[in-house]
TrEMBL record:
Top-level taxonomy: Bacteria, Bacillati, Bacillota, Bacilli, Bacillales
Gene source species: Virgibacillus salinus
Name of the featured protein: Fatty acid amide hydrolase 2
Domain of life the protein comes from: Bacteria
Sequence ranges assigned to domain Amidase in this UniProt record: 35-461
Keyword Aminoacyl-tRNA synthetase: no
A single cellular component GO annotation: endomembrane system
Alphabetical UniProt keywords: Hydrolase
Pfam families reported for this sequence: Amidase
GO molecular function list: hydrolase activity
Record flagged with keyword Hydrolase: yes
PROSITE patterns the UniProt entry points to: AMIDASES
């Protein structure tokens, strides 16, 4: 076996490693940060033309930072991600990098300071390779915009990578970083994790700072739905990175204190046969270890409607102002022009979503009603999940072809009521949710499942996640683009 072949095998094994393994290998001297960072950069150069996940790179800076870390003295305190290469969703400010929101009118805007989560990751020793693609203003569950174009799923480039953290999902699915960071107000960590076969964790409400995320959450009911969280290759990495970025440390727990429920299939909402089989397999496996029940949590059937109304509270006015800040045309005119000419500055996914926000904007009376439902529901949901872990699907299928998810969620016929309940529940009630690859569909595309519980039960979520991960095999890097 020649030297080049040995080197190639070594590089592939490093691309398969999670952030925890890489950090341990660097600290022990088994690997250098320079070696690891260089392998990931070269890999990204190979795979990114096919998936279009990295929209801004800092490869030269990353190599320099890796060399500096390798030259640090032994006695220097080395953080838990020391020398580990990561990626960052475009929505987060990274000093001296652009934060565009996928908008042409922001293409020259450079961040002057790091987002809070980015600063914490850097302090932990992480090295940022680049920023990953998003839909315009993160306002879609598919990733495409006028500035950077469309991101493709590495398992099948004709299929969606999801959104809005779709660049992170595609990049990590192809093994383009050891871990990454995303955000989620409507499945934006969980859709890409599910579609690309990666692990993702959406923290509960107010658990991680959103300072330095664009667009900012300015409406209280929306802010409670949003979570900034890690994506990557293992549950233990999600636990590690969440511990780094969370406002407060989480409490150690025992799984023996928890009931485990799997969402009942007895509801009139779509779910593929392959997904049902995957969940039933997990149920059968866990039943050997725990008492496992089937149930439907309180307010589950209301959550998709509540999510849509909360997302439409201001009729999309704040988003429209950002999207059309240098354009006098209104959103209706822009959408019509785009359909006719394809020459506007705003992607039709965004303009149509903003039209939908106008159509679905709740009345003042309905807003008061929603506030009352949320206040009462918070108590009931917290009581139900106090000592319970809930396993449920992420979406009704694996990744479909580009455009299908947008059609299903943003149809004027309100089909989101059928397709969003699995996702909306954790957002509306501000709950932590862990997504884990658990199988494949009839097209050999990844299928993920969610584990949800109350805020404060993160440790139990991670423990159960590791058991499911062992059963399913967890993350499997897509090597088809190598």
């Amino acid at each position: 076996m020649g030297t080049d072949q040995v080197s190639l095998l070594s590089a592939q094994s490093i691309l398969d490693m999670d952030a925890t393994s890489i950090a341990n290998a660097i600290k022990s001297g088994e690997l250098s940060s320079y070696e690891v960072v260089n392998i990931y950069i070269e890999h990204l150069k190979r795979v990114n033309p096919a998936v279009n996940a990295v929209v801004e790179e800092r490869y030269a800076e990353a190599i320099r930072e890796a060399q500096e870390k390798d030259n640090q003295k032994e006695h220097v305190n080395k953080g838990p991600l020391f020398g580990v290469p990561i990626s960052v969703k475009e929505a987060f400010n990274v000093v001296n990098m652009k934060t565009t929101g996928g908008l042409l009118n922001r293409k020259h805007l450079i961040a002057r300071e790091d987002a809070d989560v980015v600063a914490k990751l850097k302090e932990a020793g992480a090295i940022i390779l680049g920023k990953s693609n998003i839909p315009a203003l993160c306002f879609c569950q598919e990733t495409d915009n006028k500035l950077y174009g469309r991101t493709n799923n590495p398992w099948d480039v004709a299929r969606t990578a999801g959104g809005s953290s779709g660049g992170e999902g595609a990049l990590l699915g192809a093994g383009g970083a050891a871990a990454g960071i995303g955000s989620d107000i409507g499945g934006s960590i969980r859709f890409p994790s599910h579609f690309n076969g990666v692990v993702g964790f959406k923290p509960g409400k107010f658990q991680v700072s959103s300072n330095g995320h664009f667009p900012a959450d300015t409406i209280p009911l929306q802010k409670r739905m949003s979570g900034m969280g890690p994506m990557g290759k293992s549950v233990r990495d999600m636990e590690l990175i969440y511990d780094i970025i969370a406002n407060n440390p989480f409490t150690e727990q025992s799984l023996s204190d928890f009931e485990i429920d799997i969402l009942s299939f007895d509801m009139n909402i779509p779910l593929s046969q392959k997904t049902k089989e995957t969940l039933s397999g997990i149920e059968q496996y866990l039943s050997r270890l725990f008492l496992v029940n089937r149930s439907t949590p309180p307010y589950f059937e209301n959550s998709a409607q509540l999510w849509q109304e909360i997302m439409s509270l201001d009729g999309g006015k704040s988003m429209e102002k950002l999207a059309f800040s240098t354009d006098r045309s209104n959103v209706l005119a822009a959408y019509a022009k785009e359909k006719l000419t394809r020459k506007t500055k705003v992607h039709p996914y965004l303009s149509w979503a903003l039209i939908g926000a106008k159509l679905f904007k709740p009345s003042a009376g309905r807003i008061k009603e929603i506030e009352g439902i949320i206040e009462q529901g918070d108590e009931e949901v917290a009581a139900f999940l106090n000592n319970r872990l809930l396993i449920l699907p992420v979406y009704h299928t694996g990744a479909p072809e580009h455009g299908k998810v947008f059609q299903e969620i943003f149809s004027i016929r309100k089909t989101f009521l059928h397709y969003m309940p699995y996702i909306a529940y954790a957002n509306v009630w501000g709950l932590p949710s862990l997504t884990i690859p658990a199988g494949t569909d009839e097209n050999d595309m990844p299928i993920g499942i969610q584990i949800i519980s109350a805020n404060g039960n993160e440790d139990a979520i991670f423990q159960l996640g590791k058991i499911v991960e062992r059963k399913s095999g967890g993350y499997n890097r897509c090597s088809g683009l190598d």
